[in-house]
Amino acid sequence: MGKIAMGVVDYHERTKHWPKKFAAGPGELDFNNQPLPFSSYQHVPVTELPLIKEAPEGSYSDLYDRGGKGKDNGAQSFTKESIGAFLELSLGLSAWKSLEDSSWALRCNPSSGNLHPTEAHLILPPMIGEGDAGGVYHYNPYGHQLEERASFDAAFYEPVAEEFKTPGFFIGLTSIYWREAWKYGERAFRYSNLDIGHALAALSFSASLNGWQVTALNKLSHDDIDRVLGLDKVAWEEGEHEESEILCYVHEAGALGVSVAKEVPRDISPAVIESFSGLDFYGVPQRLSAEHVKWDAVYEVIDTTRKPTTMGQWIPFKDTAYINDRKSVEKSGADIIKQRRSAQAYDGKAEISKEEFFAILDRTVPRKGNAPFDIGVSKVRVHFFIMVHNVTGLEPGIYCFLRDEKVLEEVQKRTDFGILWERVKETPKDFHLYLLDKKDFRELSKKFACNQDIASDGPFAISMVAQFMETIERSPYRYRDLYWEAGMIGQILYLEAEAVGLRGTGIGCFQDDSILAILNIMDNYLQNFYWFTVGKPVEDERISTNPPYLHLKAQGRS
Q1: Which range among 139-148, 393-402, 478-487, 518-527 shows the weakest confidence by mean pLDDT?
Q2: Is residue 257 predicted with pLDDT exceeding 60?
Q3: Among 128, 218, 278, 295, which has the minimal tally of Cβ within 10 Å of its Cβ?
Q4: What pLDDT does residue 416 have?
């Protein structure tokens, strides 16, 4: 194993939670030093984006199917209104919550601890920008506004338009790791990259409502992205820099979202990158905290996993129908997005049918021409161990759901001889769900999830495991991709839970090796990356809810 890959393995091992020992963290939280949840670039021109007056058309199933909205009604043109709606329904606010003297915002994209390390930057062509100019902008979700960081004219953008013949614009995601490190210490890298996955799925789903598609420029290096977005020119406060993660191109989806996406380049030429590097970038990021604690392990793995320039990838997926087309979901796609929440507690009584359970799992399997995985981040590397508690028609126990059947033999040979590996009956041919052990796993589920009741009080809890070692040995930078894939799955599960009248919760605190140990998986082929549970929420009646942009409407915004 190479030195870089070993650095990733060391970080993952170092940041595991164990039954009697947690990964290094701050202990008591210094709330007086909590990072501001919203970033703003000071002393720059600001473009206020219109708030949605009428939610975009499109059913819940249209969030996935690129042929739905785009084919039936045509893609929306790229305007301030449509881009504003795209951002509002992906990275924007969904509600304000209040308890006594405290209030906090919720967003359409979930985040570990509601800390939101993810930031977004857009490159808009002259026809989309203010006036005759295009530019590079930071999106501020609190003000639902674009903060201009650089400006360029039509002549500057011509070489870009020649490379990207399909009309569209760019959006890049970055992470401020300090936001998560403030609360979670050394595990901040894990949670921040899960949030990138959440955000990528949120962008992909929101794009569908406009008849658009988001395509990852997966050939670019992190250094390339820094130069294009001007991140290498910013005078950052120590500990508060934005780490580039991914740059994407947003374009019309076309028929079934396939033909157009294939024509989109997966990189930007060196000449165009150099031209962006020559722009005059301006703006000073607002300071987020008075003081910082530097968690060396986090910044070491950031450096270790920075992506080099690679081959661009077009990732094909199977062209198969979903088990349930979700046409019966009455609420619109936009409504489901806006009502997404993380449950804090479940009633412990909810059950779902095995058919509904199968349909939820099935939504996490990539399809040709379907959001969110057609964004093109990576092939399938994440699978599920599921503790089934209360699914009618299924015995309580631990199950394995393989999102790609090719790994069946590799996983089987690593488990204990006593594991059943019984294929669950009455499932479609390409649905790979196996019963491993018949047992009530409620107490163990709770125990493995840091003694959180929410892991045992729903119909099921999912442990997402990734093909870790083979991925890291080949491409250490794909450590981030594994979290992104898990985060994208998490956003699907959040929306699926809402669609069936339940609520989801992502769980970041879990004993990493416990569920693997009971199956006798002792090597690093699979590693635990994310937990997720679904159930009927118990609402805290003390907490009040207000509309997301009440503060802007009070200022006369519309």
Answers
A1: 518-527
A2: no
A3: 278
A4: 85
pLDDT tens digits, residue range 190-204? 999 999 999 999 999
Cα Rg of the chain (Å, integer): 22
339 contacts: CB under 8 Å, gap ≥ 6? 94, 331, 498
Rounded distance, CA 500 to CA 521, Å?
A: 34
Backbone angles phi, psi at 383, to 5 degrees: -135, 175
Signed CA dihedral, 519, 522, 523, 529: sign only: positive
CATH topology of domain 333-535: NADH Oxidase (3.40.109)
**Residue the block writes with tokens 């390409």:** 430
- CATH 3.40.109.10-classified regions of the chain: 30-304, 333-535
152 bridge partner residues: 134
413, 418, 424, 428: CA torsion to nearest 10? 10
Q: What angle do CA 420, 423, 425 make, to 5 degrees?
A: 130
Neighbours of 447 (CB within 10 A): 17
**Helix ranges (DSSP H) in 242-329:** 259-263, 270-277, 296-304
**What CATH number should be reported for the domain whose range is 30-304?**
3.40.109.10
Q: What is the pLDDT of residue 69?
A: 46
Measured torsion, CA atoms of residues 337, 246, 142, 42, in degrees rounded to the nearest 10: -170
Q: How many CA atoms lie within 13 A of 441 on its CB side?
A: 30
Residues 313-334: tens digit of each pLDDT: 888 898 899 999 999 999 999 9
Residues 355 and 433: beta-carbon distance below 8 Å = no
For 519-530, how does the pLDDT look when each residue is reduced to its tens digit (9 = 90+)?
A: 999 899 999 999
- Residue 224, judged by CB atoms within 10 A of its CB (0-12, 13-18, 19+), counts as buried
Query: pTM score, two decimals?
Result: 0.97
